[in-house]
């Protein structure tokens, strides 16, 4: 369903690319399995694209186009960041014959960057009190690495057509665990791993698969995970013990906190700007020809 923002059409492939990136992010956090939040993520995708479109349109309306020298410097910097021209063109899938297109995009990006800077230039710097409050409210972010001990049930997925059946079967196992069944007993009955590999012992981040660590380190002691997938198959995990890391001194992380709070303020300021632009914008979600018409938001 194409999106039209003030007459600018954003076609389905762009929306689907944004949707895929959002879904991949949530999958990496272990907060979803399969497709139960796809409609929600497509809404996020449209919101993100609308945000960028309105910001870009406002930048092109209010910010003068950068000069050729500024665009050239930005282009040279971009190629340097990729390790040179050849590596740049290879990584973006373009060729030197398309330099004009690339430079036009860079010109617009510079206008957007200038608009962002202008909108945020008067924002106050975070105070020490604000930094300390953030530190104390998010102390887990500023601690040495935690350790987790977990057990798991693993089912290999070798045949694509059996994927849904295996997922449903593990969901049923999970419900039995939530209802109080013994994890080790069910693991011996259902896991494709030998009994000695049910208990994984203690581990830190970076020692196991990313997907597995993202799930287990987000869990409380005694908690059973949702069914989640890795490249090897489906898993259920139970955290049996946790060892908390010790907090780092405030002064050693203060600069990072200032950077984070500044970024949050900039994001909020830009959201305010876009919310104002939405009040006069014409935003349409175009239904397919056999749909029920357009959805306009003005």
TrEMBL record:
What this protein is called in its record is PpiC domain-containing protein
Any one Gene Ontology molecular-function term assigned to this protein's record: peptidyl-prolyl cis-trans isomerase activity
The record places domain PpiC at 145-241
Q: Which InterPro entries match?
A: PPIase_dom_sf, PPIase_PpiC, PrsA_foldase, Trigger_fact/SurA_dom_sf
The record's listing under PROSITE patterns reads:
PPIC_PPIASE_2
SUPFAM superfamilies annotated for this entry? FKBP-like (SSF54534), Triger factor/SurA peptide-binding domain-like (SSF109998)
The record's annotation in Pfam families points to: Rotamase_2
Q: Organism, per UniProt? A: marine metagenome
Where, by residue number, does the polypeptide cross the bilayer? none
